[in-house]
UniProtKB/TrEMBL annotation:
Belongs to the glycosyl hydrolase 1 family. Keywords: Glycosidase, Hydrolase. It comes from the Eukaryota. GO terms for biological process: carbohydrate metabolic process. InterPro entries: GH, GH_1_N_CS, Glyco_hydro_1. One of its GO terms (molecular function) is beta-glucosidase activity. SUPFAM superfamilies: (Trans)glycosidases. Pfam families: Glyco_hydro_1. This is Glycoside hydrolase family 1. It comes from Artemisia annua (Sweet wormwood).
Amino acid sequence: GKDDHDIKREDFPRDFMFGVGTSAYQVEGAWNADGKGLSTWDCFTLRHPEKISNGANACVTVDNYSKMKEDVQLLKKMGVNYYRFSLSWSRILPGGKVSMGKNLEGINHYNKLIDELKANDIEPFVTLFHWDLPQALEEEYRGFLSSAIVDDFVNYAEICFWEFGDRVTNWVTLNEPYRYAFSGYVEGSYPPGRGAKNAESDPETEPYIVAYNLLNCHAATYRKYHEDFKDLQKGKVGITLDTNFFKPYRGPHNKDDVNAVEYAYDFMFGWFMEPLTKACWPENMERFATSATARHPNGRALPTFSYDQRSKLINSYDFLGINYYTANYAKIRGPLAGVASGYETDRQYDSSEVDPNGKPIGEQAYDGSWVYLCAHELVELLLHIRKKYRVTKYIVITENGSPDKNDTKKTYEQVRDDNYRIKYIKKHLEAIRTANHKNLNVKGYFVWSFMDSFEWSFGYTSRFGMIYVDYRNNLQRYPKKSALWFKKFLSIENGGHRKRALTNGEHED
Ligand code: PNW
């Protein structure tokens, strides 16, 4: 059949977006160079080294800020036609707000990056916000806990559209608002470190307020682009949501776990997708998050979207970005003992990476990793999304990838033959081919990540790159086997858009 031959470039339309991704805080370094202001991640890693493996930070990381041209050459060699990266808000607006002044050197850096990409036939795919909020806004009004963020976000976005929109036509407003709200305000593992374990915070309301403000930032930015820039710049504005695929723990006949699957979507993907499509919260979220509690004896309520916010939200995306890594089992759970009431107790389900017999849900990247290879589940996820949320706009897989198999090993020799990653990517490309045969309208695929970099809580202990970075020797870059595999897959012989550009010392197999 048409779905079972080895995956080829020709299985995808010529204008399919093939790329790799990074984010500003993870790769740039240059944390205080050329007028950049501090971000919440700069401050958090320095103040809370205990929250990051080995107390690491990304003040320097892989120094993509200075190695920008070299890195664009690596992208070119790889043969990708798109590159996804994010802008550092505090590099452009050091104090977060326009009134505090623009940083022309920061703007200039991104102008150079964008020009360099275009000169090498690579289209920029740009995320406005990949979690690194200007610290000044966190301090002034507690960042996304305040609706004051919306005007500042839109003003920042407007500067980006104004400065870069003549050359950038693919925009993502937010990367993974779910993880931003969950890790920052439930787990407390990301800045601002709030949540159940932080006595000052209110886990019953804060994650929901943050989600509300994130959504309003997104929607207002989308409308701003369509009102003031779209006619001239002709670009697209989307949002990137992260979701796992969920399966009922005890199988499809267990009603409780089938409900748990619903709750899992409602509290992860639907948390953002329902507001974007219906301008309201998922019904189950309304049901479980509005009860009377000790902290809120008169009952607590989810934030309500005003009429104006609703009309901005509905269908406020030209495409839907999805970050897909793995699947989980969902199982129903009763009241939670010993956990502060809030988002975590509201969601009524536990996730599990193994079935009731202890069998893992897919091939695990390495012992202890959260990534399992569950590629066919991506097809099911896309079908589910289309059905449940009636998504008809095109989809871009904005992230998909795996950490190195042997994650404790550090040398190039130990990780260069990344066969697990090659298999992982191949299987997901096959899944996308199948999805498109079912008219699921996937127009792009970005591997996470272009190169090894600062992996948030994991610091430098988890490597997602197709390019290896030697942290012990001058941050030298070397391709892992997957980079060469991807290059071959994308090459002209396979119907790729560009001639092969193999040079000095590189060999194919
Ligand atoms: C995403 N989890 O984050 C981010 O968008 C990237 O910046 C990040 O490097 C990449 O995935 C790989 O982790 C996630 O623990 C972080 O389930 C953690 C999880 C999922 C996504």
